[in-house]
Amino acid sequence: xxxxxxxxxxxGTRDFYPEDxxxxxxxxxxxxxxxxxxxxxxxxxCVLEHEELYVRKAGDEITGQLYNFLDKGExxxxxxxxxxxxxxxxxxxxxxxLALPARWFxxxxxxxxxNMQRGRKREHFQWNMDVIGLPSVAxxxxxxxxQVDFLRATGMRVDAGAAGQPEITLRVSNxxxxxxxxxxxxxxxxxxxxxxxxxxxxxxxxxxxTAELLGQTGVDQPTxxxxxxxxxxxxxxxxxxxxxxxxxGNDNPGVAALRELLVLAQAFxxxxxxxxxxxxxxxxxxxxxxxxxxxxxxxxxxxxxxxGRYDGLIEHLGGTPTPMAGFGxxxxxxxxxxxxxxxxxxxxAALRRQVDDVIWPMGASEFAIANRxxxxxxxxxxxxxxxxxxxxxxxxxxxxxxxxxARFLILGGNEVAAGECVIRTLGAERREERVPLSRLTD
Length: 442
Known about the structure:
The structure is a single chain. The protein is α+β, with helices and mostly antiparallel strands and about 450 residues long. The protein has two domains: about 20-45 and about 85-340, BirA Bifunctional Protein, domain 2; about 355-440, Anticodon-binding domain (Rossmann fold, 3-Layer(aba) Sandwich). It is about 40% helix and about 20% strand. It contains 17 helices and 18 strands. Strands 1, 5, 6, 7, 8, 9, 10, 11, 12 and 13 form a ten-stranded mixed sheet that branches. A hairpin with a 6-residue loop joins strand 17 and strand 18 (about 430-435). The mean pLDDT is about 90.
């Protein structure tokens, strides 16, 4: 006897049974509808990329998290850990033929070999929305507004008012604030990118450990303390922006960008969710301007989504400088949150299997006519399941109701001999009618 294989999925990955797929498709439907309402077009890219697309970015942890290997053609390739570099490659390939600004979205599956924790696995699907060719912070404001609209559509509290305090916060910063400050301290280029990667760990490892890691990038301790003091500056809305201005001066380019962003957020109606937080830098080295993370005030103590401006990525890959901004929103973390909040519509029609008709031939002799009826109904656009199981009537109709069917078509020997089919309407009505077979087959 052969040895039994391991029936569990590879560690950190998932299987999606039909009931899981219904939840996934419901979530993806909300993402697609939100993107559609903002005028974004869907795209995708190959899940397998050239390894160099990811390892060229200095200081990124993602390089060490790659599922990478040598293929049979002796090429270094990797499963995509994120979609943004692929997007940049595709934009480069289009060149001047791409009309700008362009608004694209995708729901890619991504792979990262990282330490797993709640809301984080080694593969996930991620909702991406990106604006290409728009240098204004209007792009970032629009992207944040789309995230807020999606969260509102799930039933999460995002609006101020009698319904209770919002449970979502947008922690917003601008890398230009920190970059201008560090430029004055002689920390620029690759060193600046490395410092940002370290600061991104602050919430997880604390101040002293962060200062120690900054030392490993060549930042002396007095300078490290000045940096850590700066990234604690912030606050709610306009007060947060003014606190940053007081710390770095009004001539800092990041301050002006934050002020403009807040005005646009107010116009969109989500400024009450914005908290200025200079410790938000995002871990990827390619971000250049606005960066933000979405936090939930519940039991998950980390960002549930994030985004930013990455104007330098295409140039870094050897292309023409192109302004770009976008976000990523993973399916694992939001599904867990919605389940905890009781917002997954498990009993809603949207999550039930959608079968219009179940045909029940009582015996094998009725299979042929059942198939003829099914073929006609399918040509008419209906979803049809033929129950060949031979199960008893009681169990067959229970199964049809469980499938969410609207009608149950009964084909017994007597009915077929009489040239008829009994159609029972399921649900509250529970009525029956006899229909000539000719109406169902011609």
